[in-house]
Design brief:
mainly alpha, Four Helix Bundle (Hemerythrin (Met), subunit A), 9 helices, 82% helix, globular
């Protein structure tokens, strides 16, 4: 099974949109959690250290992620590519584990399950990518890395959905229910889109080719 790789123009366009959005929403997340009084947690051992660890690890992911997908870096500087990959794996692992804890203890009951499941899936995709790389299964490694980075960008999808919530979730009037809906949709929808691109459409195209050959 293979996936259709985007063209160079499509790749540049995607990164040209995604990177500014990532920086903008990362700034907004830091401003809300670390600069707004009362949002960081009661004390250092009660939430604050977890949020600080989550942010520090997530920064390694946001910086290293785009570099990991650079074909020129991977072919011309393989040692640097592997080093950045190790930093990404370490950062994503810490960020996912801290997300699981923070999600399980968040005050909003409707947000606990979606955040914990998100963290668990992110952790699985990240460790699966690492394991595939160790076994030199690089095609599978690439697919798991795409899934891992797609979930890492939940920060962007969640904030974007928040800004567009009056249009996206106009049918949900209750504020608590709307918050829980955003938490689910922020990672379920991107994951479904990724699976459509990475797995389902290639399977359908493969079936079509086999059917044409059989005829």
């Amino acid at each position: 099974m293979t996936t259709t790789r985007p063209t160079a123009v499509q790749t540049r366009l995607a990164w040209g949109i995604l990177l500014p959005l990532s920086v903008y929403y990362l700034y907004r997340a830091i401003s809300f959690r670390f600069l707004t009084p009362g949002q960081l947690g009661p004390d250092l051992l009660n939430k604050q250290a977890w949020y600080i660890a989550h942010l520090g690890a997530a920064l390694a992911v946001f910086i290293g992620g785009p570099l990991q997908f650079s074909t020129s870096l991977r072919t011309r500087r393989p040692a640097l590519h592997r080093l950045i990959g190790r930093c990404y794996i370490g950062g994503a692992t810490i960020a996912a584990l801290s997300a699981i804890y923070l999600g399980a203890t968040i005050e909003y009951e409707g947000s606990r399950l979606p955040i914990v499941l998100l963290g668990a899936l992110w952790l699985f995709f990240t460790l699966a990518a690492w394991r595939c790389a160790l076994r030199r299964r690089f095609a599978a490694h690439r697919l798991f890395m795409i899934r891992s980075y797609g979930l890492a960008l939940v920060l962007v999808w969640l904030r974007l959905m928040y800004d567009l919530q009056d249009w996206l979730f106009f049918y949900v009037r209750d504020e608590a229910m709307r918050d829980a809906t955003r938490e689910w949709a922020s990672w379920v929808i991107p994951l479904l889109v990724l699976e459509l691109w990475l797995a389902w459409l290639p399977l359908l195209r493969g079936d079509a080719r086999r059917a044409a050959t059989a005829e």
